[in-house]
Amino acid sequence: MNNYNNNPMPPNQSCPSFGLWLALSIVCLLLANKICGIVAIVYIVFANTAYMQGNYEKYESNFKTVKIALLIGVILGIIKIIFRLFFGMVSILFL
Questions:
Q1: Which pLDDT band, with edges at 50, 70 and 90, does 16 fall under?
Q2: For a Cys staple, 33 with which of 54, 74, 76, 80, CB 3.0–4.6 Å?
């Protein structure tokens, strides 16, 4: 009897581009925003686990959370850099 109509076995490999998103999460943690970086790392690990277990709906949900956390982290990081540059220039001018 063939198993073509049964549910497939879960894959034994990591989710697509897991290493890339994990690296981006670590860069966000170190350079942009620590909270968003931690959230992204936790959820990319959750997404990878869900993918390896074959739970693709949970994988998609967790992966979407990773993308949102990284986007927010990058935006907050850019705002932080702009404020530091602006207030640094202001303090230099008035000292």
A1: confident
A2: 76
What's the rounded Cα separation, in Å, for the pair 62 and 59?
5
Residue owning tokens 């170190």: 30
- What pTM, to 2 d.p., does this model score? 0.73
The pLDDT value recorded for residue 94 is 63
Residue 11 is given by DSSP the state P
Tell me the Ramachandran region of residue 43: left when phi exceeds 0, alpha when psi lies from -120 to 50, beta otherwise. alpha
Is residue 52 within 8 Å of 10, Cβ to Cβ? yes
**11 within 8 A of 52, measured Cβ to Cβ:** yes
Spell out the alpha helix ranges (H) of the chain.
18-27, 34-53, 56-93
Percent of all residues in the chain with a pLDDT value above 70, rounded to a whole number: 77
Integer Cα distance of 71 and 84 in angstroms: 20
